[in-house]
Amino acid sequence: MDFKHIIKMECQVNKNEHYQHLLLFAFNQGSKAIKAAHDICAVYGEDAIAERIARDWYAKFKNANFDLKDTPRSCCPVEVDEERLNQLLHKNSHQTTWEPAEKMECSHIAIEKHLHLMEKVKKYGAWAPHALSDNNKNQRATISAGLLACHCSTHGH
């Protein structure tokens, strides 16, 4: 079926349940997950359902799991103790997200998300602030000025 000429429609029922039923219908028809997601998005808008979500549901269906209720999410706490995470990173800034996750009894994804919120990034294998502090900026300026002065004195500029 060609959905290119169909006007985008607003879903009149619970969107997630409706899309899950549509995915099951497409699965039973033998359609691929990505095509099903594209067809749903063609009718309900490009952000209606992600391809990844469709693939996840298809994986359930392939395992003969046709329960259309969403599975409960992990019971890991949404809140991460920022002070404790900073302490763990201070002890070893080269650790992966798995190590503090194990110590804080939550998922490594929760740690990754919280590090992102804390504006920490992995640089040269160590967790560091994304932006330079004023002290870091002053150190860079001092070092650069010293190197420039050294270069000028040795090259006669």
Quick recap:
The chain is mainly α.
Key traits:
two-stranded antiparallel ribbon, 157 residues, 7 helices, mainly alpha, histone H3K36 methyltransferase activity, WH-like_DNA-bd_sf
Would you give an account of this structure?
- The protein has 157 residues and is mainly α.
- 56% of the residues lie in helices and 5% in strands.
- The protein has helices spanning 15-29, 33-44, 51-62, 82-91, 98-104, 108-117, 134-155; strands at 120-123, 126-129.
- A two-stranded antiparallel ribbon has the order 1-2.
- A hairpin with a 2-residue loop joins strand 1 and strand 2 (126-129).
- Helix 1 packs across helix 2 (33-44) and helix 2 (33-44) crosses helix 3.
- The longest helix has 22 residues, at 134-155.
Please describe the topology of this protein.
Elements: H1 15-29, H2 33-44, H3 51-62, H4 82-91, H5 98-104, H6 108-117, E1 120-123, E2 126-129, H7 134-155
Antiparallel strand pairs: 1-2
Q: Please tell me the overall pLDDT.
A: 83
- The general outline is elongated
Portion in strands: 5-15%
Helix count equals: 7
SS content category: mainly alpha
* Helix content, binned percent: 55-70%
Report the end-to-end length measured between terminal Cα atoms: 73 Å
Quaternary structure state of the chains depicted: single chain
Low-confidence stretches: none
Main-sheet strand order equals 1-2
Rg of Cα set: 26 Å
**DSSP strand count:** 2
Largest sheet: 2 strands, antiparallel
Order of helices and strands: HHHHHHEEH
